Amino acid sequence: MEALKRKVLPRRYSMKDGSTDYDNYDEADEETQKHLQKEFAEAEKHGWAEGKPGSFLNRLIAHGNKKTEEELRRSAANLQGGSSSS
């Protein structure tokens, strides 16, 4: 039954969990969303492009940037590997 719940029900990230594993969640719970909205507003007010340093928003953005950089590296490696065999 638990396996079925995990497949069917979206997992919600909560700041209360204390987890830094942002990959295994489909969305954030309501409290976390409200907190992020406040952090967005504060970051915009102070001109912080990636949120207040050390904030939850900042950690989420850094995590996303890291994942994107890794994906770009893999893509570049695949392209180089594919072009050398031509």
Per-chain topology:
Layout (H helix, E strand, L loop, with lengths): L1 H7 L3 E2 L13 E2 L1 H17 L9 H28 L3
Parallel strand pairs: 1-2
List keywords for this structure.
two-stranded parallel sheet; mainly alpha; 86 residues
General description of the model:
The chain has helices at residues 2-8, 30-46, 56-83; strands at 12-13, 27-28. It is mainly alpha-helical. The protein is flat and about 45 Å long. The mean pLDDT is 80.
In which order are the strands of the major sheet placed?
1-2
Number of strands: 2
Average pLDDT number: 80
Based on CA atoms alone, the radius of gyration comes out at: 18 Å
The helical percent reads 55-70%
Label the structural class. mainly alpha
